[in-house]
Amino acid sequence: MSDNLPACPECSGAYTYEMGVLLICPECGHEWSPSEESEGGTGNKVIRDAVGNELADGDTVTVVKTLKVKGSPTGIKAGTKVRNIRLVDGVDGHDLDCKVDGFGAMQLKSSVVKKA
């Protein structure tokens, strides 16, 4: 076994191993290519919307499906425009930080919005 393998980028586990061209973490099951790590080591992750368009800070997006919101009887309806989004490294896949009219500040998943 080689002692110079990098730690897992997901959970920082030290027990990574090689399988073919991939590096694998047995602790969390994350698989990645060593070339991906050397290219994206700074954490510049591209966030894309439901259609595949690249999102950036300050963009305006449209919600593509009706979303349930805890404590609200109606939720966020499909077609609602959300202005001035911020890209964040959120919890549970929520990677957009924004203010939705009528609901206030919240985080959304990029998979439920489309760039306007």
Structure notes:
The protein is mostly beta strands and 116 residues long. Helix content is 5%, strand content 27%. It is built from one helix and nine strands; from the N terminus they run βββαββββββ. The strands form three sheets. The chain has a three-stranded antiparallel sheet with strand order 1-2-3. A three-stranded antiparallel sheet has the order 5-4-9, with no helix packed on it. Strand 7 and strand 8 form a beta hairpin. The radius of gyration is 18 Å and the shape is elongated. About 4% of the residues have low confidence.
Over all CA atoms, what is the radius of gyration?
18 Å
Number of helical regions = 1
Shape descriptor reads elongated
Distance between the termini: 50 Å
What's a quick, concise take on this entry?
The chain is mainly β and 116 residues long.
Detail the topology: elements first, then pairings.
Layout: E1 17-19, E2 22-24, E3 31-32, H1 34-39, E4 61-63, E5 81-82, E6 86-87, E7 94-100, E8 104-109, E9 113-115
Antiparallel strand pairs: 1-2, 2-3, 4-5, 4-9, 6-7, 7-8
Essential attributes:
27% strand, 116 residues, three-stranded antiparallel beta sheet, single chain, mainly beta
